[in-house]
Amino acid sequence: MPNKKLAIFTATGCRACENAILDIHYQVSSLARFADIAFWPYVSGSQWKDLEAEDRLDVCFFSGAIRTGADREAALKLREKSRIMVACGACAAFGGMPGLINLPQGSTERGQLQQTTDKGQQSPEDGKPELPPLEPGVSALSQIVKVDYFVPGCPPTQNFLWAAIQSLVCNGQSPARISFAAARLPEAISQAIASGILPPGGTLFAGEKAVCASCSRVKEEKRFDAYKRPYEAYESSGRCLLEQGLVCQGITTREGCGGLCTAVGQPCRGCFGKAEAVFDPGAKMVSAIGSTFDSEDAAEISALVDDFVDLAGTFYRYTLPTQCALLSKPSKD
Amino acid sequence: MSDFEPKIIAFLCNWCAYVAADTAGIARYKQKPNVRVIRVLCTGMVDPSYVLKAFAAGADGVLVGGCHPGDCHYISGNFKAMRRAPLLNKLLEEMGVESGRFRLEWIAASDAPQYAELVNRMSDEVRSLGPFSPSIIE
Amino acid sequence: MKNMTFEPLRWQEDPVRVTVFDDPEHPQAYFQVTAPRDMGRICKGRPVEELPRILTMMSPAHHLVSAMALDRLFGVEPPPMALNMRQALLQTHVFRHHLRKLYFLISSRQNPFQIHRKGGSRGAIQLFPPHFLDEIMHHEALSQEAATILGGRCDHPLSAVTGGVSRFLKEGYYHRLSEIAQFCLAFANRLSEFFRDAVFGDGKLLDGFQNLRIEPMASLTLSKKDGNVVLTDSLGKEKDRFTPDMMFKKIDIYTASWTREPFACIQGSSENPGGKTGDMFHSEFPVPNPHFLFVGPLARLNSREALESSLAEEERQRLIEALGPFPHFGVVAAYWALVVELLQAAEKMNGLYVEEKLTGPAIRTIPSEIGEIGFAALESPQGLIYHHYRTDKRGIVEEIEILGTRTVNNALRCLLTQKAVESAPFREQAVKETQNRIEISLLPF
Fold first, then answer.
1. How far apart are CA B85 and CA A297, in angstroms?
2. A267 pLDDT exceeds 90?
């Protein structure tokens, strides 16, 4: 069976997703048994003309959010050449943290185009090279091109990257044990991987339930009498963080990471995107937190709510461009 | 601006607010025509997602009307709405929805004239705020 | 006049490209960062205690320095165990970062994927032992494991918080950590031997780069003794020493029209012996002769402080024997500085991954009030970084200033790219080689 042709590229973001691919296993070099890495600028120094010389690529792992015209072009070029396009990481899948610049900065700017260039940055003078234009806001990959699969997370966890690679690149044939990779995937998907069939288009390589399902903390009764900010005192291990008064978004976030952050004593911030049954993560958090208030007095509730800060920036930390019902554009599907 | 007619979506609970609205209509109280009513069984079932979806779909204002606290047909449904409302308001404001576009009001079944007055007041308020368009960056 | 564009560039963390306006007599190379960072816009309006988790996007070290700035903002002193854990995490990331760069360097001469390719490498001449790259990756994976244990996650750590760290370590980890530290130190030793042979033995690894260097430039480091920021001039003499919060009073930031990343220059018009700014900066900046500076492993060694770790100090002495006394500004010295610091990080890891250091009664100190200003400086693997926050009464970020290595080393990378292009033989024909030359020279900085 001929080797698959692979491309790995990051638009604007950090290199954590590509490093995560390099780190999936110390024998990452053994990937070469299944794939020819035809285009990996970060590690192999591939140039755009190398991509143009290729006829067709099989799988492209695209990370990073779309911030400049160059990113948009890259997404279009790679989509054209690749049979399968994978949005790798929260930035490509949902917009990621760069997406926070799409938040209205103040009510006076509502409806206007945001100032996107730094102060003092003029257009280049003669004799100086040009720069790719900035897009007015940040977009996720799925808002520019059709995306076939998503691997969420910031950065994606080892197991799901492996699952995606095994499924899409190795066709289930790599010698590594499948059970580690497919632990939290929905059954249909892990069976598809094991039998070498491609999962249905649009699949996210993650679980379906909320993070609470895999979080190791003890859940008792949910009551918020006082809202806590993470610098205040709370139990770092043991009891559920939401119950202790912290805003933890595990309740609206797709599972799969195994409760990484909560295990370390930090509230979840939703880097796997919203869970299957959620329409809008912010609305769901409002509903979830609201339902834990005990009071029946409007003034008391108002006073409690006064302590909450930066709801939009917290609930939509990784997902503003795509999953915020009010501020997102539709995807290309 | 003078041609602008706000679109207000009203989620009214079946047992109190809807009855008031119905009565107001039958009694032909003068009401601005900007409100579109969606009958729900209880304000407790109005998920914040519905409110967000209404704004995202083009509403300029959203009203949630239910029974007075203590009078809920399902005992505590309206308390659930009461607990969500301030938080939802805060989230909406952060996303650019000005205060006054979203309201949670208590309307008894016999409050028909108050309902009509509320509708008119809210229409005027939203009209003066202007049309709502989410700051989606294109 | 033929123009060339090299995009994307290998091994660069940021989206960059190099545009060359090629005049055979006088090529002009521009190192362009093509996307802005936007960190100010992302962070303003966020609760300040979230900043370590947001700024970790820039690098793991930014996560740590953010927590340090929060300590100051909230007026708390972390307990000793937390300080040790943070330091252990930093050294792990130094090790990982430098090891990755050396992996990239070696992979430029030997394709890591060649070996497993069907019908691949049999018969081809191997410059290095066949599975050496896999061994490097193995130790990369070990340090990654240690970083995950200490930080919660590897590339975007979580555990540094206001006043300390976020949780105790589980019992079983201490033994594993000290195992990892021992493996890493042993390998760092082997790698340093290998590097010396490969560069100065048969000279194959950095062939053609022996004379590639920038004009002498001032450097910025953090003093280990008193925590102050030290400015060393281009001759290697200390020129200024100041507390971190004076940073933006001593450093000016300028923007150029052809790159999205600003530049850092030393304020004031003190003389800059030997320094030469490239033509690209003419007419861009308000000051006539901007005095650039740089940070990083080479800058740290240029400050000429002796190292505490014995193996690293021995290596540093070997560097001085082979290349001459500091300061150095060349590509070979920069790579060797990575090796020296790799040894130092491995030795420090062995010193810190010890149960006594990483246990204690408290993981963090709870603050009782929110201050207004927080700031901190730290030597990240890539160089000195500095954070400065101002918040309102509720702890929401109003103003944030970050001096990152991308900004400070921007000038160095521009000037080095220019030198690499100028000295590239037959650059019009040998496009791939010219690109390679640029990439290898930029990598250690």
1. 12
2. yes
Residue A173: the pLDDT is 66
Reading the block at residue B96, the tokens are 């650019």
Cα–Cα distance between A187 and A185 in angstroms, integer? 6
Q: Is the pLDDT reported for residue B107 higher than 90?
A: yes
CATH architecture of B8-136: 3-Layer(aba) Sandwich (3.40)
What are the structural domain ranges in chain B?
A: 8-136
Question: Alpha helix (H) ranges present in chain A?
Answer: 16-22, 41-44, 48-53, 69-81, 90-94, 158-168, 178-181, 187-194, 260-263, 281-290, 298-306, 311-315, 320-323
Cα A60 to chain centroid distance, Å, stands at 16
How far apart (Å, rounded) are the C-alpha atoms in residues A129 and C6?
13
Model confidence at C125: pLDDT above 60? no
Q: What average pLDDT does range A110-116 have in this prediction?
A: 36
Give residue A172's pLDDT: 63
Contact between C414 and C30 (Cβ < 8 Å):
yes
Query: In terms of pLDDT, which residue wins out, C176 or A237?
Result: C176
Query: Comparing A174-188, C74-88, C337-351, which segment has the lowest mean pLDDT?
Result: A174-188
What is the structure's pLDDT at C106? 87
The three-class DSSP label of residue B64 is strand
In this structure, what token pair is assigned to residue A140?
Answer: 């996720």
Nearest CA in chain B to A100: B95
A281 with A274: CB under 8 angstroms?
A: yes
Nearest Cα neighbor of A18 from A49, A39, A1, A48 is A39
Percent of chain C having pLDDT more than 90? 56
Distance, in Å, from the CA atom of C63 to the CA atom of C60, rounded to the nearest integer, reads: 5
What average pLDDT score do residues C176-191 get?
94
Bridge partners of A134?
A68
Could you tell me the two tokens for C83? 């300080």
Residue ranges matching CATH 3.40.50.700 in chain A: 4-99+136-195
CB atoms within 10 A of CB C226: 9
Q: Rounded distance, CA A228 to CA A299, Å? A: 19
Residues of A in contact with C34 (CB under 8 A): 68, 70, 131-132
Q: What are the residues facing A293 on neighbouring strands?
A: A224
In order, the DSSP letters of A228-285 are: --TTS---SSSB-TTTTT---GGGTBB--S-SHHHHTT-----TT-B-TT-S-HHHHH
| C230 in Cβ contact with C238 (< 8 Å) | yes
Kindly list the residues from chain A whose CB atom is less than 8 angstroms away from the CB atom of residue C259.
131
Name the interface residues of B facing A (CB cutoff 8 Å): 47-49, 51-53, 55-56, 69, 79-80, 82-84, 86-88, 90-91, 94-98, 133-138
In CATH terms, the fold of domain A4-99+136-195 is Rossmann fold (3.40.50)
A and C: number of Cβ contacts within 8 A: 202
Q: Which of A168, A129, A142 is nearest to A4 (CA)?
A: A168
Average pLDDT, stretch A161-184? 68
Residue among B52, B94, B98 minimizing CB distance to A283: B52
The 10s digit of each residue's pLDDT in A235-261 is 888 889 988 889 999 999 998 888 889
The CA distance from A244 to A223, in Å, is 8
User: pLDDT confidence of B109, banded at 50, 70, 90?
Assistant: very high
Report the C-alpha gap between A191 and A195 in whole angstroms.
6
State the first-to-last Cα distance of chain B, in angstroms, to the nearest integer. Answer: 24
pLDDT at A175: 56
C145 is written with which tokens?
A: 């494991």
pLDDT value at position A120?
40
| pLDDT band with cut points at 50, 70 and 90 for residue C1 | very low
Provide CB contacts within 8 A for B37, sequence distance 6+: B10, B12, B18, B21
